[in-house]
Amino acid sequence: MQQPWSIYLLAIFMLGLDSKLVGQAFQPEFAEPLMNLTVPVGRDATFRCLVHNLGGYRVGWVKADTKAIQAIHVHVITNNHRVAVSHNGQTIWNLHIRNVQEEDRGQYMCQINTDPMKSQMGYLEVVVPPDFVSEETSGDMMVPEGGTAKVSCRAKGVPEPRVMWRREDGADIVLRDANGVKTKVDVYEAEVLTLAKISRSDMGAYLCIASNGVPPTVSKRIIIKVHFHPVIQIPNQLVGAPLGTDVTLECYVESSPKSINYWVRDSNEMVISSSKYEVVNTVISSFESRMALTVRGLTATDVGGYRCVAKNSLGEVDSVIRLYEIPGPSIKNTSATGKKEEYKYSTPIEGPDNQFGSADRSDDEDEKETVMDVTDTVENMVKTNRNRTINYTQLNSIHEHKLSNKVRKIINKFEIDETFTNSSSELHSSIHALIVVILVLYSNAHCTLSL
Ligand SMILES: *[C@@H]1O[C@H](CO)[C@@H](O)[C@H](O)[C@H]1NC(C)=O
Ligand SMILES: *[C@@H]1O[C@H](CO)[C@@H](O)[C@H](O)[C@H]1NC(C)=O
Ligand SMILES: *[C@@H]1O[C@H](CO)[C@@H](O)[C@H](O)[C@H]1NC(C)=O
Ligand SMILES: *[C@@H]1O[C@H](CO)[C@@H](O)[C@H](O)[C@H]1NC(C)=O
Ligand SMILES: *[C@@H]1O[C@H](CO)[C@@H](O)[C@H](O)[C@H]1NC(C)=O
Fold this sequence. Notes:
By secondary structure, the protein is an alpha+beta fold. The protein is built from six helices and 29 strands. Bound molecules: 2-acetamido-2-deoxy-beta-D-glucopyranose (NAG) (5 copies). One 2-acetamido-2-deoxy-beta-D-glucopyranose (NAG) binds next to α6. It comes from Manduca sexta.
């Protein structure tokens, strides 16, 4: 009850002698608080100070942290020419800051020159959209398989941006710890992405995305290439066709950097496209391709081994497909295509680069094998093979079984090592290969049982 009186008396006492102000029954008052402003850098900001009963007093603007007077009444004081003032009658007083910069951030005070002066404050927040710090942001990268790729994206902005990683193709990011334990995430949030024990399936474009709620969000594309020794997979190692038909042999190659792929016959002559042969290389992905060799109008001289060879800067691998004749015209256009259910793995037996499987296999070890079934089939074949003719139908069926990678490698090593010069030595080596397979399968089975 006392306060209005004391203010009134104080005002009369202080201002009473000023004839201009004698009519002022009331002191000026702020009609509403000064709003806090949040403005992206480069835009304009306006503080609005609402005053009642200004009378003969004046409104001034001060930047609180630097105490720099911005404006008094209708005059701009600061030499910052981005600052302007405007007013609407005696009530609305505006401070305009054009093309806001980060140094404009801070508390602004609207003052009335009463005694004591009256003031209120509002905060100008200047927000800055994210931007990458190029010195701390990785470029494209090449890593040997099994190595570690560490890519970073450092982003600045106000507020502090969040940085996250995604794969451009939408696949999961695979993180492996020191023990090789994998964690799959679709989004990884951190400035640094470390891909330890990197696999070829991790190869590709990664996007780092920085956002802080201030548009625009920015992203950077970083390509991680994983280098490894080439690997060949063969759907069908033995391909039979009747004379006169067209037959296609195929090899699937995984290689990075890209390999040079070609076909070689037993005689070591390279197979090139001609009226007899059609050689086609098809790119499947950044590191996978399909080699297809079509032999047109099969003749007796076309029968034999065909090696597909893949060579890159890290090494070379080859694998043999044997083409044989099926008697009779009943089978038309035998082709290896379309039977992709099982691949044989042709990895080089020696060399340090050969410790990794293929993309679709490397992560899925411990396939459950029908080991005993295969063993039986192979066993029967050899037993019933006393008259020294291989039943290729039967042999093909074995290749369609689920062989373990180890067995595949052994079969394959065999066929790389052997040179088939005529059907008799071919037969011998086939039988030899089968015996090795049986030994391996038996020892596997034995191990499994004794465990
Ligand atoms: C402005 O922000 C300050 C703290 O940052 C707060 O205390 C004040 O109430 C805000 N003003 C308005 C009008 O919201
Ligand atoms: C082989 O297949 C092609 C097309 O698939 C066909 O045009 C051609 O006549 C076939 N040849 C024989 C011998 O069946
Ligand atoms: C041995 O060869 C004959 C034809 O000469 C064939 O009929 C028979 O099935 C063969 N035996 C086996 C076990 O393949
Ligand atoms: C080869 O094996 C298949 C399947 O086991 C059998 O159907 C076929 O009769 C055999 N052919 C010969 C010539 O023994
Ligand atoms: C091909 O096989 C025959 C027996 O059928 C053998 O006498 C000859 O030495 C073999 N040729 C080669 C190059 O091994």
